[in-house]
Specification:
CATH class of the largest domain: Mainly Beta
Radius of gyration: 23 Å
CATH superfamily of the largest domain: TolB, C-terminal domain
Strand order of the largest sheet: 1-20-18-17-16
Number of domains: 2
Mean pLDDT: 89
Helix content: under 10%
Structural class: mainly beta
CATH architecture of the largest domain: 6 Propeller
Low-confidence stretches: 1-32
Length: 418
């Protein structure tokens, strides 16, 4: 389904009764004022995040897929040219990995579980292809009409969001047989073109795409497994864990968190958001997109390079990075890679979250006996004089045990350095 089709879902529909978890909340109320940013730049990352690199596209180009290759390179598909490209740097110039002639309308690009290929979906003819990263022609592996999104579960099985055989949307099993109808695992998902994602435990998340406010629905792993061999699930079998979302376009899981893009049609401001299942599905904005002179700027495709911790403001390199494609469908049209600044607490050197004598010992160990290097070296600079030396351990001990001068910011809360 195209963005215009998604935006035009205005026919009244009878809403199925949904169970709401205690965590169902309104996410976008009050989160529409852009973060500070440079004049004329529609992308406004949250404090603690930066746009590390950008890939501009012509205003007439149509986004059709976005991913990280396993080696960290950026992969894009532009539906007008029909080209899947691998970008080695931040410029538009890139190596063409595959070309579809005639061009097709791209739905998704997702790395294969084995990491040797990309799985590409297109909704013009319904083809799902394996595109070898080492070179070679795309191979048709399945045919699912109007496919919209793909996610792999922990076992490497692919699940595709696409219109149902009877009505509304469905989630179907990728069966590697283009001639056969793919099994419907979930049916009667009101609306069309909803994204999906799996967590590490195999629970399935689905973002609705119906008229009105959207919901994030959870289907437990046991339910999915039962549906693979029995009757398909329906929307009412799921648990609504998030409600009153403007829209879902991209939805991805990484490092224990969910991430999604909201086109901004409901509020006038597009956004990239993080959802924390461990905190009652609390929602945090990671970037907002200020309207351009010609209209709403909508973030669409989303990809994550997973780190050892969740991607969040101040997480540093260990938080990985995020790709987002955004456009006003008129003038603004680019891919941005967001990275996290490395925030720290001055004097908190050993990474245990507490400033105490063990940090002074860690300073001395790092400086004089080859101890472990702190994640952020500036944390060692306890006195804030710009140097790393014995005086930092002395200053820290003086503060802790003799009522000495306070430790300079960032302290006691994490923050950026000088």
């Amino acid at each position: 389904m195209s963005l215009s089709s998604l935006a035009s879902l205005a026919a009244p529909v009878a809403r199925r009764g949904l169970r709401r978890s205690r965590a169902a909340i309104v996410v976008l109320a009050g989160i529409v004022a852009p973060f500070p940013g440079a004049a004329g730049d529609t992308l406004r990352p949250a404090p603690g995040l930066i746009a590390a690199r950008r890939i501009p596209f012509p205003s007439t180009a149509t986004s059709g897929g976005l991913a990280y290759a396993p080696d960290g390179r950026i992969v894009t598909y532009e539906s007008g040219s029909g080209q899947i490209k691998v970008h080695d740097g931040g410029s538009e110039a890139a190596r063409v990995l595959a070309t579809f002639d005639p061009p097709v309308f791209g739905s998704f690009i997702v790395p294969s579980p084995a990491g040797d290929a990309l799985v590409f979906g297109e909704s013009s003819q319904g083809g799902v292809y394996s595109v070898p990263l080492g070179g070679g022609a795309p191979v048709l592996v399945d045919s699912i009409r109007f496919n919209f999104d793909l996610a792999f579960d922990p076992e490497g099985r692919g699940f595709v969001s696409a219109p149902g055989l009877a009505r509304w949307n469905s989630i179907r099993l990728l069966d590697a047989d283009p001639a056969a109808e793919s099994r419907e695992v979930v049916i009667d998902l009101e609306g069309y073109s909803g994204p999906l994602a799996f967590d590490r435990e195999g629970d399935l998340y689905y973002g609705t795409a119906k008229a009105g406010p959207q919901s994030l629905i959870l289907f437990a792993r046991g339910q999915v497994e039962a549906a693979l061999s029995g009757d398909p699930l329906v929307e009412a079998d799921g648990l609504v864990v998030l409600a009153d979302v403007g829209s879902f376009y991209g939805l991805r899981w990484a490092a224990g968190q969910l991430y999604f893009t909201d086109l901004g049609f409901a509020t006038g401001t597009g956004g990239l958001y993080r959802v924390d299942p461990g905190e009652d599905f609390a929602v945090s904005p990671l970037a907002l997109f200020e309207p351009s002179e010609t209209g709403i700027v909508s973030p669409t495709f989303l990809a994550l390079r997973e780190g050892s911790r969740p991607f969040a403001p101040g997480a540093g390199p260990r938080g990985g990075s995020v790709l987002v494609w955004y456009s006003d469908f008129n003038g603004v049209n680019e891919v941005a890679e967001l990275a996290a600044e490395a925030w720290f607490v001055r004097g908190e050197v050993n990474g245990d979250g507490v400033v105490d004598i063990s940090d002074a010992i860690a300073v001395l160990g790092y400086l004089f006996v080859g101890g472990e290097e702190p994640e952020v070296l500036e944390a060692v600079d306890s006195n804030g004089d710009g140097g790393l030396d014995l005086s930092d351990a002395v200053y820290l001990l003086d503060y802790l045990f003799r009522g000495g001068p306070a430790i300079p910011a960032p302290f006691p809360e994490p923050g950026p350095g000088a």
